[in-house]
Design a protein that fits this description.
Layout (H helix, E strand, L loop, with lengths): L3 H7 L11 E4 L6 H8 L8 E4 L3 H9 L4 E2 L7 H6 L24 H4 L2 H16 L9
Parallel strand pairs: 1-2, 1-3
Length: 137
C-alpha cells in the first residue's frame, strides 16, 4: 500500500516498478524479499529502504508518501477507507496472503512418544510443502 500521489510520482504500474520506490519495512509476517520472490520471481533492488519496528509507524510513513508498505489491511483499515492509502496493484496475481499456524507444547510433552511423533510428522509435511518453519523458545 502507498499514498495515491506516490503511485503517480513513481509510476507504479506493476511490482517490477517497485525498484523506483522506497520500500518501507516493518515487523510483520511477510517480508519484501518474500513478496518479490513470490510475485516477481526475483529480488528487486529498491531505490531506498526505510525500517520501522512498529506497523503503525510504517503506515504513517506510507500515508506521508515516503514509500510503499506491506502491511495488514486490518491495521490500515482507517487509512484505506479514507483513501490516504491505496493498493497500487489491483490484480489478484500480485496479492500474497500470509497465514501462520503454531504448534505449542511444553518441554515435558515432547518426551511423550505420541507428541514427539506428531511434531516430527508435522515438520516433515511442512518441509515437503516447501514452507518455512520457525522455532521459538
Amino acid at each position: 500500500m502507498c499514498s495515491p500521489r506516490l503511485i503517480e510520482q513513481v509510476e507504479l504500474r506493476e511490482p517490477g516498478d517497485l525498484s523506483r520506490a522506497t520500500l518501507i519495512h516493518s515487523s510483520n509476517a511477510l517480508t519484501w524479499a518474500d513478496y518479490l520472490r513470490k510475485v516477481v520471481g526475483s529480488n528487486i533492488r529498491p531505490r531506498h529502504e526505510l525500517w520501522f519496528d512498529r506497523s503503525t509507524m510504517a503506515i504513517d510513513a506510507a500515508v506521508e508518501g515516503l514509500g510503499v508498505i506491506l502491511e495488514s489491511e486490518l491495521l490500515a483499515a482507517d487509512e484505506l477507507e479514507k483513501g490516504t492509502l491505496v493498493a497500487p496493484f489491483h490484480h489478484a496475481q500480485f496479492e500474497v496472503e500470509t497465514v501462520s499456524y503454531y504448534l505449542i507444547r511444553s518441554a515435558e510433552a515432547k518426551s511423550r512418544g505420541y507428541v514427539g511423533a506428531f511434531e516430527a510428522w508435522l515438520r516433515m509435511k511442512i518441509t515437503a510443502a516447501n514452507l518455512q518453519i520457525a522455532t521459538l523458545k
